Amino acid sequence: MTLGNQKPDLGQARRTFFEGAHVAGGRAATGVVPATILQSWQRCRDLGLAADARPEIAPLEHGRLREMRDRSEKLWRLARAELELLQADASATGSIALLTDAEGWILDAEGSTGFLDKAGRVALMPGACWSEASVGTNAIGTAIVEGRAVEVRGAEHYFAPHRILTCAGAPIFDPYGQLVGVLDISGDAGVPQMHALGLAQLAVANIEHRYFDDGIVAAELLRLHRDADLLGTAREGLLAFRDGVLVAANRCGLELLGLRHGDIGHAGYEALFDDAIGRLHDDGTLGDRHGHLLYGRVDTPERQRRAPVRSAITVSASTPAGDPDAPIFDAGVEQALGQARRVLDADIGVLIQGETGSGKEVFARELHRRSARAGMPFVAVNCAALPEGLIEAELFGYEDGAFTGARKSGNPGLLRQADRGVLFLDEIGDMPLALQPRLLRVLQDRELLPLGGGRPVRLDFALVCATHRNLETAVAEGRFRADLFYRISHHCVHLPSLREHGDVPALVDRLWARIAGGRRLDAAARAALGGYAWPGNLRQLVSCLRTLVALSEPGSIVDAALLPGYLRMPVAVSAGGPDGPDAAATPVPAMPGADLATVTEALMRATVDACGGNMAQAARRLGISRSTLYRKLGRGARHYES
């Protein structure tokens, strides 16, 4: 909801609250200002915060930020994949996705801050604090206080300078009911952010589900849902019982039984279920005390997985053929796969190049599955996602006592975990320059010496690297070692962007058929999906389709109203559309290799041209305010006024 869409009396209610008497102002705002926002305003005023002031938000210096990230390492690790998935959507809508700790300190950020001035960009950098006590009513700080998802739009923010923002924040809880952080999506209050809260909550559900990947020690973990089709997804309920007492649960599990986080550690199994837990073993169903039949299974302590699952580091066997999430490749990529397999089987490294989101890791995993090393480990390391202080220890391993905080038993390192399998170094162009010589030495000698000493270890692995950067340019600029580049680039594969795909509508249909669960796309929604430029490539498209599934019911028809805001841009406008019977569809510019900002600007200019220079009409087509359109086009906007 934009400022223009907000209730016209919100501004008056705000003036009455802040300028009137304490009690009278609060009463006058009741019914106009959402109760959650009003309660937050009252808390902030009680703290003595001046609503017309400009709060100073200064990020921590790098050393303290690193310490803070280390304290929240597990949260950051489990949330990183969600931030990467949100990056394309956030960039496309001119917004930013933020991860904070339980006190509101920003740990990580992905997306676009182009809508902010310099001070605003600094305020949303990692290391800045957005607690309610520090910066007043905002989605991060207020979600922490309330313990639930919160949306704060424009002038609902306590401090007047923050009214340029619309923010949606969802708190993240660990399995034991402790609040550990917030995931927030913030954007320009002048641009509709219709699905921001839903996207944040969906991402948080995935993060909270991942907390259970290691299992719960010495507990029986129940995986339940009223819909059997949702078992195994982030929407399944997870409830862990030890000696008949609920000791851990995710939010979905609590909601299934009408419980709250405070019930963890107190609620008993017999008070919640009519059936003995053995029924889950026998027929996969369980009846609760409210008479509902639940489907599921139980993981005993012996069956629960012990190996940690990381977003920056993944160790797995090959993906089986026929998997519902198996990739879809066109003829050109299939040919590239065949060639790359022959090269990899000859123990020659493969370098995959392509834009962010173009499917480099998907290609690498399929290459592993088809190679002679299928069935052996596939170890994926995102060189850009690992904290710089940990990447050397994680890659090369260390001996007992190698450094402060090291595990007593040491760590074999990821290179050794890839033995006889495939090592995938994603975003190798972002590997710190200081570590590149050591990696080169390992690749040349095929042995490594762990940190802290010990005997050299012989290695046997196939190497696949990937990057979205131009490594030749990086070599020329001194940011990447030439000898390492020549070592990893014997065989290069370029993955085309989605803009270069020959038939995007057909690809949309094939992907949708796999995940739709009986849902159907109406003609307008299908046309918008098939005609969009997809600057975030395959990752953005898949994320969008999965979001549409999450926001709709099985068997329903998904129409254009459910699409994210960036899809209701020119590609969705056709003759007879909202601008009248003479409005023509605006073609999406084909700009292979262009970055998101360039594509967005070109799309805006094409829309203005299609509207004959009418900025107001173009802004309506784009779903943004006219002031935002002027700001995005900058000086170029004057061309249309002359």
CATH architecture of the largest domain: 2-Layer Sandwich
**Sheet with most strands: strand arrangement:** 11-13-14-17-12-18
Q: Structural class, from secondary structure content?
A: alpha/beta
User: What is the molecular shape?
Assistant: globular
Between the first and last Cα atoms, what is the distance in angstroms? 32 Å
Stretches where pLDDT falls below 50 for ≥5 residues? 1-7, 305-325, 399-410, 570-586, 588-594
Going by CATH, the homologous superfamily of the largest domain would be: GAF domain
Mean pLDDT: 79
Give the amount of beta strand, in percent. 15-25%
Describe the protein.
With 642 residues, the protein is an alpha/beta fold. It has 5 domains: 1-198, GAF domain (Beta-Lactamase, 2-Layer Sandwich); 220-299, no CATH class; 313-494, Rossmann fold, CATH 3.40.50.300; 497-558, Helicase, Ruva Protein, domain 3; 569-642, no CATH class. Strand 15 and strand 16 (457-458) form a beta hairpin. Helix 1 packs antiparallel against helix 2 (22-29) and helix 13 crosses helix 14 (360-370). The two termini are 32 Å apart. Residues 1-7, 305-325, 399-410, 570-586 and 588-594 have low confidence and may be disordered.
What's the layout of helices and strands?
Layout: H1 10-19, H2 22-29, H3 35-46, H4 62-71, H5 73-92, E1 95-101, E2 106-111, H6 118-123, H7 132-135, H8 139-146, E3 150-153, E4 165-173, E5 179-188, H9 196-210, E6 220-225, E7 237-242, E8 245-249, H10 251-256, H11 269-272, H12 278-283, E9 285-287, E10 293-299, E11 313-316, H13 331-345, E12 350-353, H14 360-370, E13 378-382, H15 388-396, H16 414-417, E14 422-426, H17 436-445, E15 447-448, E16 457-458, E17 462-467, H18 471-476, H19 482-488, E18 491-494, H20 504-515, E19 520-521, H21 523-531, H22 537-550, E20 557-558, H23 596-610, H24 615-622, H25 626-633, H26 638-641
Parallel strand pairs: 12-17, 12-18, 13-14, 14-17, 19-20
Antiparallel strand pairs: 1-2, 1-5, 3-4, 4-5, 6-7, 6-10, 7-8, 9-10, 11-13, 15-16
